[in-house]
Design goal:
mainly alpha
Amino acid sequence: MKQIRIGQYYPAESLIHKLDPRVKLLALILYLVLLFLQMDVAFYGLMTCSVILVWGLSDIPASLMSKTLRKVIPLLIFTSLFVLLTEDGLVGSMQLFVRLVLTVISSTSLVLTTTPNDLADGIAKALRPLNKIGVPVAELSLILSIVFRFIPIFMEELDKIRKAQMARGVDFGEGNLIEKAQKLVPILVPLFVSSIRRANELATAMEARCYQGGEKRTKMKPLQYQYRDYVAYAIILCYFIFGIIVKIGA
């Protein structure tokens, strides 16, 4: 458990893991569309129960989700506080906070149950029609695959840098907003330098292996729909239509 980084794929044999990544991508997109529509409290409860059900079916320990939420909750609270200055006030701030939390949980569920390669392949398959208008889908797939692989590494490195600065006496909780922002500089600069170094090393390794991108590259495990994927599509579409009907009738 300790070896699983935040945002890293968690291997399991659950039903959610076995679904095609295109199914999970569509489910996430439609879920977020419903989530950011203006809904009442009852529908927020339904959205919360839905994401909890999916999380339960994924067989992923709750400690992984709590670890992720602990990292982002302060940022979500800080973002939600800005809504207090608008006409929506406290109610709007609480709604935004709930939406952001559910967004993090649903997005994390996708990343933890889908390998980076499958996720990138799913996006590439979904965007394949864009090849007809000259969009380099294969290259975009490679970029996304690299991004997904490096997110947990950067998260772990960010945590190490933060702990190193705290060991030197930096207190990130003291001071006003400007002072807190200034204290982020000793974290962001080393992280930026490390990112450039890793990108350079990756580019060198790809050139040394004579990597050639494009649509002609084959896949060791090409994506293929199974019966469960079609059933999942039907459930997702029914759920989305139900949400739209509730919205229209509200």
